[in-house]
Amino acid sequence: MSVRIGHGFDVHRLVKGRALTLGGIGIPFDLGLEGHSDADVLLHAICDALLGAAGLGDIGLHFPDSDPAHQNRNSREFLRHVHALISERGYAVSNIDSTIVAQAPRLSGYVSSMEENIARDLGIAPEQVSVKATTTEGLDATGRGEGIAAHAVALISSQDSG
After folding, report:
1. Residue 53 and residue 132: Cα distance in Å, rounded?
2. For the chain: N or C, fewer Cβ within 10 A?
3. How far apart are CA 139 and CA 146, in angstroms?
4. List of domains in the chain
5. What is the mean pLDDT of residues 123-144?
């Protein structure tokens, strides 16, 4: 069995006039994340972690922001596509560990729904997905409320020697 680890990171600016979507969940807030797609930083970080673990590049390679087909696209579609790509290469997702960094809004009430969405899209149990939310105590751009960031680590495994 082969085990591989990948890390992903994403950050987007908070702006007026956009919906806030994290982990595929609409979060009531007066600001949303700026981006070509729905700008779901959590799912983008998870996609990058999975792609990196499988040696398949990053989200920008597979879903370039220069492609109009991705305009306002739901990032859960990206996650399902990435899952299909790694599955085709013989990998299964063992677990996802992720952290959202946001001064506001409070996210604790949405975490379990995010975990369920991610697990469903990856064909794994919710217990194999961890989503945590934290702040930077007012430090840096996320702490000043200028944006939201996310980190993710993915563990994937294969039965072959890959």
Report:
1. 21
2. N
3. 11
4. 2-158 (3.30.1330.50)
5. 97
- Please indicate, yes or no, whether the overall pTM of this predicted structure exceeds 0.70: yes
* Main-chain phi, psi angles of 12, to 5 degrees: -135, 150
Task: Please check whether residue 23 is in contact with residue 117, taking contact to mean a CB–CB distance below 8 angstroms.
Answer: yes
The DSSP code for 137 is T
- How far is residue 159 from each of residues 1, 3, 86, 125, 130, measured CA to CA in Å? 4, 9, 13, 20, 24
Burial class (CB in 10 A: 0-12, 13-18, 19+), 6: buried
Pairing of strands 2-15, 20-22: unpaired
Task: Report in angstroms the alpha-carbon separations of 28 from 45, 134, 140.
Answer: 21, 18, 23
**Cα(138)–Cα(29) distance, rounded to whole angstroms?**
18
Nearest alpha carbon to residue 4 among 122, 132, 125, 91: 91
Determine the Cα–Cα distance for residues 116 and 127; give it in Å rounded to an integer: 9
| Residue 10 · residue 3 · CB < 8 Å | no
For 70-93, the pLDDT digits (tens) are 777 899 999 999 999 999 999 999
How far from chain centre, in Å, is Cα 64? 16
